[in-house]
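Honest question from a wet-lab person: if I give you the sequences of every part of a complex, can you actually get the arrangement of the whole thing, not just the pieces? Trying it with mine:
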Amino acid sequence: MNNELLSIGGIYLVTLVLALPLGAYLARVFRGEKNLLDFMRPVENGIYRLSGIDARREMTWQQHMVALLTINLVWFLLAMLVLCTQGSLPLNPDGNPSMSPDLAFNTAISFLVNCNLQHYSGESGLSYLSQIVVITFLQFVSAATGIAAAVVVFNALQTRTTEKLGNFYDYFVKSLTRLLLPGSLLIALILAFNGTPMTLQGKQELISLQGDSVAVSRGPVAAMVAIKELGTNGGGFYGANSAHPLENPNFLTNAVENIALVIIPIAMVFALGFYLKRRKLAYMIFGVMTVGFVALLAPTVYYEMHGNPAIAKLGVDQALGAMEGKEIRLGAAASAYWSITNTIISCGSVNSMHDSFMPISGMSQMLGMMTNAFYGGCGVGLLNFFAYLIIAVFIAGLMVGRTPELLGKKIEAREMKIAVIVTLLHPLLILAGTALTAHLYASNPTEYSGWLANPGYHGFSEMLYEFTSASANNGSGFEGLGDNTPWWNISTGVVLLLARFLPIVGPVAIAGLLARKKYVPESAGTLPADTATFGVMVLAVIVIIAALAFFPALALGPLAEHFSLY
Amino acid sequence: MSTKSQSLFQPALVSEAVKQAFVKLDPRIMFRNPVMFTVEIGTVVMLLVTLGLLVKPDAAQGSFGYNFTVFVVLFLTLLFANFAEAIAEARGKAQAESLRKTREETPARVLDANGQESSVSSSQLQKDQIFLVEAGEIIPTDGEIIEGLATIDESAITGESAPVIREAGGDKSSVTGGTKVLSDRIKVVVTTAPGESFLDKMIALVEGASRQKTPNEIALTILLAGFTLVFVLVCVTLAPFAEYSNTPIAISAFIALFVCLIPTTIGGLLSAIGIAGMDRALRANVITKSGKAVETAGDIDVLLLDKTGTITIGNRKATHFWPAPGITEAQMVEAATLASLTDETPEGKSIVELAGETRRSDVAGLRTRLQGAELIKFTAETRSSGVTLPDGTRLRKGASDAIRQLAARANQPFPQETTQRVEAIASNGGTPLVVSQNDQVLGVVELQDIIKPGIQERFERLRKMGIKTVMVTGDNPLTARFIAEKAGVDDFIAEAKPEDKMTYIRREQQQGKLVAMMGDGTNDAPALAQADVGVAMNSGTQAAKEAGNMVDLDNDPTKLIEVVEIGKQLLMTRGTLTTFSIANDVAKYFAIVPALFMVAIPALGALNIMGLKSPQSAILSAVIFNAIIIPALVPLALRGVAYKPIGASALLRRNLLVYGLGGVIVPFIGIKVIDLLVGVFL
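Yes, you can. This is the full assembly:
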C-alpha cells in the first residue's frame, strides 16, 4: 500500500522536475529568444510561406480572436467532411462505415474544443484516416490553440502600454513545432516500445488460450495516445481509453501518460513566471493550484484505497481497495491519482471507470472539473484561473484601500463584467443542463429509463457529471449514462461549444483591455499579487464561486450517496 | 469642531432615516441596487405565499405563522438596508446643513452699474453682482474681493478663531458667505449663482438625486450582480433537482436560501459606505465636488506639498547670531537689530524678535537712534538692505557675496571664520545674512526654516502607504535638499515656478501615477485642474476653487494627508464588507442546505454540522442572522474601516483574517445562537 502511495508521489515529483525547465524553455520559445529547437525554424517558415502568413505582423486582441475562431471553423468543416465520407476514403482496412451527420457533428465539435465526448467506439466507428486527419490532427491543433491564447495573455500582461500582442500564428505554429510534435514523438516511442500498436494494418486474427478466434483491433495507436495525453484532450483510440491494455500496457506507460497529461498545464504556469520575469507570481499560482489539486486528490486516494464498505459487507476482501472498474495492473492509488489529474486538467482520458469510484471520489472528480482551474487544460486552464484572479484582485485591491490593479493595470468595470460572465458561464451550463435533464427524467421516468443505469443519488451524479464534463471540455463520463440519444448529443454539444470559446475570448479580451491601459508602477501601497496571502484570497474566491455554487447539487448526488453508504 | 464628537445615531436623524427607509421601498428607487431589488421581489413573493396560506392552508408550504415570520424578516432586511443608506444621507445632510446655516438670509448692499446702493436679500444675489460689506457686517454670499482689504472672522466655517486678512488682487481674495468682516470695507463680486455654491452641490451629492456611482462602485456592483445571478441559478435549478430526488421544497425555503446566499450585507451597505466617505471628508472640513474625487484620493501615488505652511512653519526665522572674530556679540546684535528695525520682511522682523527676546537687547532704545536715519531698501542689484544713521554709520545686512563686495571695495578683510560659518549655515539648509558696519564685517545672522513638529511622522506614514511626497519651494536646490531631507520628503522642486508644478504633475502622470496637490493662487489653477486630486483652499481665488475637485474650508495644507486616508478608508470598507458578506455564505449553506433535504434524505442530516434544531428553525435563524447583520454593521460602514499604514500585504493579511476568516466563523456562531433562541418558540 505504501508502495502505491510512493509511486504516485514519484509520478508527481517527476512531473514537477520536468515541468520547471519546460516552463523556462517555453518562455524562451514564446519570447522569440534562442532555444534548443531553433532548427525547426525552416519548417515553420515553410508553413508560413505555404499559407501566406506574415508571422511577424503584430495583432490586437481582437485580431487574435478572429484568427483563432476562423481557423477553428475551417478545421471543423474539414473534420465534418472526412468523418461523413470516411467509408469511401482510403486507409480503412477494417471497412468501417461513414458516420451519420449528427454523430459526425458531435465528434467534430468534441475534438475541436479539445474534448472527447466520444459517442462512438474507435475500433468500429472510425477509419485510420479519420483517426489520423481528424482525431489526432484536432488533438494537436486544439491544444496549440489553447496554448497560443494563453501566450496572448502572457504578452498582454507585460509592463507596458500597447495594443499589439504578437502574432497568433506565430504562437500557434511554435506550440506545435517546438512543443507538441517533439513531445509527442518522444512519448509515442516509449509507448510503442512497451507494446502499444503503431501500424496501418487492420485487425489481427488470433486464437486465444481458450481456443476462440479473436480479432484484435490495431492501428496508429501510439502516435494518437501520445498527443491525447500531452494535448490534454483525452480521446482514446479504443473505446476503453487508457484502461485498454493496448493503449496503456503497463505501470511504466501509465506513469508516462500520467506525466504527459499534466506536464504542459503545470509548465505553462512556470512559463508565465519566466515570460513576465515574475517567478514569484508563477509560484503563487502554482501553489494555489497545487493546494486545490491535493485537496481533491487526498480524499479520492483515501477512499479508493480503503475499499467499498457495501462490498466488504458481502464478504469480499477490500485489501486492494475499491477495485470495481479498475485495472489490476495499475491499482487503486494510481487509478485515483489518474482520475484526479484527468479531471482538474480538462483531459478526459481514463484508466479506470469513474462511475465505479466511491461517492466522495466522484465528487472530487466533479469538483476538479467544476473549478476547472487547478492546472487546467493546455493553456485554457490558466485562462480560467485568470478570470478568478481578476475577481480576487478586485476584492483584495479594495481591501488594501486602492483601486484594484493587477500587475500595474487597473481593473475596472469592463474587465469585471467579462470576468463575471466567464466565471458565471460554467455554473450556468452545468446547473441549467443538469436541471433540464433532471426535470425531463423526473416528469417521465419510464420514457427516459434508458438514460440512467442507476436511478437515485448515483443517477443524479451521472447526469451532473456529464454536464460538468462537457462544460469543462473534459470529455470523460460516468459510464452508467446512456448518452447516445438526441437529447444528450444536442445538449452536451451546445454546452461544449459555449464552454470552449467564451472562456478563451473572455480572458484574452480582459488581457487585451488591460494591455492598453497605462502601467502604474508598483509601490508600498499596491497589492502584491505574488504573496501567499493573496494566494489564499484567490483560493477562497475559487472555492466560494466555483465550488459552493454546486453545493446543493452535490448534496443531492455524491454527498447523499456517501452518507447513505457510510 | 464640535460636530466631530457627534454620535452616530442622533435621535432626530434616526427618525428621519426610519421614515426614509420606508420611502425607499419604492421599486423605482430599489432598482438602482440590483442585490436589494431581488430581495424585494423575494419579499413580495413571500407576501403572496403568506396571503395564499390564509385563504387555503397548504401543509407543503408550512404553517401560516412560519411563512409570515419569514416574510417579516425579509421585509426587515429591506428596511435595514434602506435605513443604512438613509442614515448615511441624513448625517451627511445634517453636516452640510450645519455649514449652510451660517449663511442664513442677510441683507446685501448691492451696487448697480452706476454705483447706486440698494438692499437685496442674500438668497437673491445673482452671479456677477457687486456688493459692499463693512466692518461688523456678515458677508451675504461667496465672492471675490475686487476692491479693498479686510480682516475677516471665518470661525463660523473653519472653527479657527484668529481673524484672517483677505484682499483684492492677491491669492487670498475669496470670501465665504456667513463669515463676518471685522475691519475695513470691501467690494465683492458674487461668484456663484444662488443654489450653486460648492456646499449646495455637495448637499445634492449626498441627497442621492445627483449622486452618481463611482467607477469602483460600478465595478463592484457588477461583481455583486454576478454573485446574485449565480445564486439565482443555484436556487432555480434546485427545483428540478428536488423534483428528481422527490424532496419537495417549500417556497419559503427557496427564497430564504436565495436571500441568504446573495451578498445582501454589502448590497445593503454599499451606498451608505459611499455617502459616509463624502461625509467624513466634510467632517474634516473638506467639500468634495464628487464622490469620485474621494475615491481617487485613496489611489494617490504622489503628493505635491508647498514647503511654506505645510512642511515648515511660515517663513524663515533668525535663529542665531554668529559674531566675527574680535567683535562682541552685543556689538553685532546691536548692529543687526538697527539694520532690521525698519525692515518689514518676515526675516527682518524675526531678527528683531530674536534680539529682543533671547539677547535682551534694548529694542526700544535702539529705535530712538533711528530718528533721521536713511533707510536703504533691499534691491535685486545690491542684494542687501539696512540704514545709514544720522552720524553717517552705514549698517548693512545682506547675502554674503554682496557684503563681501562691499568689504573688498573698502579694502576691509572678509574673515576666514565668517566665510566658514556662511558655508556651514548654507549646507545646513539655513540662510546666512552677513552684517557689516561701515563695510567692516561684524558677523553672520543665521536664518532657518522651522519644520513643523510631527511632520516627519506624517511623511513616514505616507511612505508606508506607498505615497511619494514632493516638496515645492522657491528656495535654491541646496537649501531645498536640506529641508527635504530633514522633513523626510522623497523629492523636491526647488526654485519652483508655477509651471514647474504642472510639468512635474504631467511627468508623473505619464508614468501612470496619480497626483494630488493643494493650491490657492490663480496661477495654481492649471496645476490643480491637471492633478488627479486638486484641493483648493477656501481662501484661494475663485479660479483655483473652480479648478480643483475639493475645497478645504480650513485652508490647512496638511489636509491632503487626511483626504488620502479618507479615500483609502472608503475603498477598504467596501472591500472588507464584500469579503465579509461573501464569506458568510459558507455558514449559510451549512444551515440551509441540510434543512432543505433532511426530511426527505435523512442521511444528509450529517451536513447539519451546527446541530440546528429543525429545518424551520435553521431557515429562520439564517434569514434572521442575514437581516440583523446589516444594522449591526452600519456603524462600521459609516465610520469606515480603520486604515493602518502597514504595507499592502500586511493590510491584506489583517483584513482577510478579520473580515474573511471572521466572515466565515461569525455566522456559524450567530446562526447557532439564534437557532437556540428560535428553538424556544418553535
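Two things worth pointing out. DSSP finds 23 helices and 22 strands in chain B. Chain B touches chain A through 77 residues (CB under 8 Å).
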